Amino acid sequence: MDFDSVLKEVGDFGRFQKRRLALLGFPVLIGVLHLFLQVFAAGKSDHWCQSWQNEECGAINLTRLQCESLKREISIPVTVSEENTTSFEQCEKFNVTGVDFETAIGILGENVSQKTIPCDEGWVHDQSMFPSTIIIDFQLVCSKSYLPNIAQSIYFAGKMLGTFVFGIAADIFGRRKTQLFSYVCGSLLAFASTVSLNFWMYVVLRFLTSVFLSGIGLNCFVLANELVGPSRRVLASNMIWLYFSVGYGVLSGLAKLIPNWRILQLVVTLPYIPLLALTYFFIPESPRWLVNQERSGDAEKVMRKIAKENEMTLREDFNMKNCTKDEIHNSSTLKQDFLEVIRSRVILLMMINMAFNWVVQAIVYYGLSLSTSSLGIDPYISFVISGAIEIPAYSSCIFVAEWFGRKRTTFFTLILAGIACCCTSLVPYGIPRAVVAILGKFFVTMSFSVVITWALELLPTSLRTSGLSILSMTSRIGPILAPVILILEDTWSSLPVLLFGSLSIIAGFLCLFFPETKGKFLPSTVREAEGLHRNVAFDAGPEELQIDDGDCSKESSQVPESPKRL
Prior knowledge:
globular, mainly alpha, 24 helices, single chain, two-stranded antiparallel ribbon
């Protein structure tokens, strides 16, 4: 008897599962706080060169703010932008070396010197919006302004590494042990990062933190899917990832209440302590994993506990000894799957195209999420809206994809996301730009959700699990590249969004090479998957694929992890 049949006997979506799903969602929510923490920890603000650092203006009856304003007016050049707006230079100042401050005040309006020099005494920062950031603490401005983005890319690289390492560890040592280990190590490293003495110490600690925290989120997802029946896995996944969207609002609220980045880092890490205890006492080891490890006795104990909490009565001879193991993809089978992809030109080109599509969507999604503070409105409000817009995007895409099909939905959402990104560069800062950018986020989130299902329906059964794993790992390149692309803002403020828009539009047109899969059987073999590609017309109908051999009516129970969920 297979595991899913046994799970039905104890209840595949009862009180036990619902309680555990509610609990497993909280680590995902806390993970979002760490994932996007740097949006506020590295919030950008105006800055200018420091001059006459020891002058306090007490003799001329000025407050500290009035004094700093006067110093800037005397010593900082004014520049005129392409939009004909004036602003103070951020990285240069007039050469006031050796000039007395009171003397400089006396010749105000005539400039002390027309010669400019780089900042040689540090910088003064406008702390009205972001009082304490890594930019202020580590002076990451001017020639070092790109470093916060590099730090974010390195953090995402840690997530990619951690997903790979802890994915293997969870299969060897178990989901529960791996998750508990990740809690302990990830929490300690996150706490340590609050006392970073310099930028590179901060980067290294954040990188290591991300490696271990990825083990928490990954195993929450796996446990959520392995504790429920096949028909409930999509629902379970959506329940878990609903916490992801809620995390945007929680982080924005905390960042507003706690403007100091070190304290904020501490606060978003503290919940891991009670979550560690709750996981230890209330989250069991995956009974599916125990069966695969031939630990039927331990699996039976967990299943009896599930039955008791679900108020299910078990038959007297209930046991797990005859429960069949799942098919395990070891290195040999993965190599065979890879060779099967290489041999089929159609599947190979489809995988390359789909991988590009997933990477592009990850770039656009994270690029828009990380740049909410540069839209010209309150960054806390824009960040909340950026997360809240995902909820209607996920909800609507379910119906739109079933109504219009995968191809049309993905094509139009990617094109509309690309147009919105390009238009962002044309509208003025403030509410108009924020509205257009958030519309882009809405459409790319919709396409994100549809393309996962589409990939599952395009791949044959023999390649479905390994193929989705390859696509998921490849897509993680996107979050690493997104912060790097945002560095181009320093060259031309509109360049990143134009790149996001162009990539999205290209991906939209490339998806037209995929066949429509709405209403068709899942292919079992490579030959059947190739048969899907015989008709790639834009308006191809939902006729079922004619099966020559094999049983394609059995849908895969594998639920792919969203490429953006790191």
